[in-house]
């Protein structure tokens, strides 16, 4: 039987397992049954509310479950009952037979024959989310920092090209995981699925990193700088900008973006797509204008002000900055559970089309704009002490005769990045909170058409970094590179996880195959090269120290401190679950001290019905694929303290909100 026939037959099976979304007789919704996709139309609220409870054991939203596998002796009703079974995988290919199942409204159709919200993400939404995160202000601020490290324009452009190629490798790895595990959360789900032991460790380590550094600090600060530069043409250096005013404007723009996403996901996605086209036009205009100017007035490519080339370690440090500029290729994976499947296409194919489109465009634009930048300005001008504003302060006056317009354009570009990052980061933080191992998880996982609690958390983390991190060029470069350094660390483990992904999925789907890394000639060398290259960057990029700059060894030190704190958090949770004997009675440490941690997995015997229903609903909505919940029971003095805190929160809710 062909693969397309298998998929067509499997769709009928999936129809019986996907819960229908029926309107509630009362018209009300509980917290658990509220819309799990923040992009749903407001008009669909009543029709999608109060989904009936779903059996975890019988639910599986995979479209790769085939009739052949059922004939091989597997019972569809047993899907998901294995304690270590993988969660889900979407169909790896588009099916021509899918068109035979055409529905009256194709916007509501997907390959599982289930009705999905109309406003799920399309190819353009996917491309816009990725491109808007990748193109912030890095194209205007990073080329100077890269050239200062490499001391060679040719080498710098070569590294930008290598960065684009490396990003494609990043992307292929993540697309493979996105196809197998199409849930919101990205690395949160991938690491937890592959590195299952010790339980919760991979999840909490990544959560600690993302909660601390996955915010909108970088481009909100750059937005503030370029707004102030546009407001006062006399300002020539960032040292002339009032750091307090920079922070104030940065906090204001983060607040505005969070309010937009808090109020309406549709408004946020509309702005996201609008800025997608705006950025493409902007960078293409900058490239054409720069090349035209250099042809008329002479190229500065071979200027004699450049010193001898930098060291190889400086080159690796430059790659970290370039990786930050390309950062964003993973952005759509964070909301993979919301990607639409149209006729003849699966969510996985929609993700691939949008991702390749966005990364290809960014790769081309970054290299061409950097070439134009280096042709117009000499080395000394580009690598000055305030190189993060080189395009706005030096390039624009030469090419456009005025810098005002470009300063405003760069600020708008930064706004697009803040919009895209806020949308996806809030979804990841919501997915983290849903597992219930964070304090105040009820508020943080709150979802009323938009992830309101997670947006508040994202706002708090962004404001804290804006308030305490330096806003000068050196401080900005350190802060953005720190997040990139951590991202490279976790991406390395995701890449190595490719070796176990197929076997992991085959524990449930006997005929499962990887879709991109199908042959061993691709599967073995690519992840090894990818992981080895990342390891080199992690080791050597942090060794060099530039006089007068923040030492780069603080990258691994800061990341290690964050991971250490996360590890201690995990360790305390695990210690409370250890069993000890007191007077012949077996108890857990948590029961003794009054702080008991219980972890419910999908196969837990005594799982409360409400927890079971919540797992099933979030799994059906694809906003969480963990099939896990953590419950904390407090007693004694800890219980009394928790009760007091609850009363205080209720009082504040009543009188303030």
TrEMBL record:
Keyword Cell membrane: no
Domain of life: Eukaryota
Primary localization class, coarse: membrane
Membrane spanning residue stretches: 157-175, 200-218, 245-263, 275-294, 353-374, 404-426, 454-473, 479-501, 521-541, 553-572
Chain positions covered by the region annotation Disordered: 1-116
InterPro entries: AA/rel_permease1, AminoAcid_Transporter
Bilayer topology term: Multi-pass membrane protein
Bias (Polar residues) ranges: 46-56, 78-92
Low complexity: bias regions: 26-38
UniProt keyword annotations, A-Z: Membrane, Transmembrane, Transmembrane helix
GO cellular component assignments: membrane
The organism's taxonomic lineage, starting at the top: Eukaryota, Fungi, Dikarya, Ascomycota, Pezizomycotina
Subcellular location: Membrane
Listed name of the protein: Amino acid transporter
GO molecular function: L-amino acid transmembrane transporter activity
Listed Basic and acidic residues bias regions: 101-114
């Amino acid at each position: 039987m062909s693969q397309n026939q298998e998929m067509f037959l499997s769709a009928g099976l999936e129809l019986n397992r996907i819960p229908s979304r029926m309107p509630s007789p009362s018209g009300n919704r509980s917290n658990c049954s509220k819309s799990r996709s923040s992009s749903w139309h407001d008009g669909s609220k009543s029709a999608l509310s109060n989904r009936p409870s779903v059996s975890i054991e019988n639910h599986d939203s995979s479209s790769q479950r085939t009739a052949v596998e059922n004939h091989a002796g597997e019972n569809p009703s047993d899907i998901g009952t294995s304690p270590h079974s993988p969660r889900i995988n979407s169909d790896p290919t588009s099916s021509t037979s899918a068109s035979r199942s055409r529905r009256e409204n194709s916007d509501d159709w997907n390959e599982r024959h289930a009705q999905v919200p109309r406003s799920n993400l399309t190819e353009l939404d996917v491309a816009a989310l990725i491109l808007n995160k990748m193109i912030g202000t890095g194209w205007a601020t990073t080329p100077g920092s890269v050239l200062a490290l490499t001391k060679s324009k040719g080498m710098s452009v070569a590294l930008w090209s290598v960065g684009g190629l490396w990003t494609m490798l990043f992307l292929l790895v993540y697309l493979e995981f996105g196809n197998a595990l199409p849930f919101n959360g990205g690395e949160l789900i991938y690491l937890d699925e592959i590195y299952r032991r010790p339980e919760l460790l991979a999840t909490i380590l990544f959560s600690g990193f993302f909660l601390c550094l996955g915010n909108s600090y970088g481009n909100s600060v750059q937005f503030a700088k370029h707004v102030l530069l546009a407001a006062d043409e006399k300002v020539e250096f960032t040292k002339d900008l009032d750091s307090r005013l920079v922070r104030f404007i940065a906090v204001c723009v983060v607040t505005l973006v969070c309010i937009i996403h808090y109020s309406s996901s549709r408004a946020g996605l509309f702005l996201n797509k609008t800025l997608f086209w705006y950025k493409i036009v902007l960078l293409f205009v900058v490239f054409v204008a720069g090349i035209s100017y250099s042809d008329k007035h002479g190229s500065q490519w071979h200027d004699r002000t450049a010193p001898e080339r930098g060291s190889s370690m400086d080159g690796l440090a430059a790659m970290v900055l370039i990786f930050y500029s390309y950062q964003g290729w993973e952005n759509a994976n964070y909301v993979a559970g919301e990607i639409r499947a149209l006729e003849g296409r699966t969510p996985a194919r929609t993700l691939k089309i949008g991702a390749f489109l966005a990364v290809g465009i960014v790769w081309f634009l970054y290299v061409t704009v950097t070439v134009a930048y280096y042709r117009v300005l000499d080395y000394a001008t580009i690598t000055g002490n305030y190189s993060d504003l080189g395009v706005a302060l030096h390039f624009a006056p030469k090419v456009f005769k005025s810098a005002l317009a470009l300063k405003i354009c760069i600020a708008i570009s930064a706004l697009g990045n803040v919009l895209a990052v806020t949308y996806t980061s809030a979804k990841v933080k919501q997915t983290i909170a849903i597992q219930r191992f964070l304090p105040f998880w009820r508020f943080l996982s709150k979802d009323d058409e938009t992830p309101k609690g997670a947006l508040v958390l994202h706002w708090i983390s962004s404001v804290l970094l804006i308030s305490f991190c330096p806003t000068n060029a050196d401080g900005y470069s350190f802060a953005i590179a720190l997040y990139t350094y951590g991202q490279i660390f976790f991406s390395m483990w995701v890449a190595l996880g490719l070796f176990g992904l197929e076997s992991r999925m085959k524990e449930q789907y006997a005929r499962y195959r990887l879709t991109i890394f199908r042959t061993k000639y691709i599967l073995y060398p690519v992840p090894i090269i990818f992981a080895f290259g990342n390891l080199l960057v992690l080791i050597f990029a942090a060794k060099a120290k530039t006089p007068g700059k923040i030492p780069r060894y603080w990258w691994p030190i800061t990341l290690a401190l964050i991971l250490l704190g996360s590890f201690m958090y995990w360790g305390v949770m695990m210690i409370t679950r250890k069993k000890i004997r007191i007077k012949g009675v077996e108890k857990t440490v948590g029961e003794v001290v009054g702080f008991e941690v219980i972890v419910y997995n999908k196969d837990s015997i005594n799982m409360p019905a409400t927890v079971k229903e919540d797992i099933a609903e979030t799994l059906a909505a694809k906003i969480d694929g963990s099939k896990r919940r953590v419950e904390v029971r407090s007693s004694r003095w800890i219980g009394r303290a928790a009760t007091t805190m609850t009363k205080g929160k209720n009082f504040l809710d009543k009188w303030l909100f």
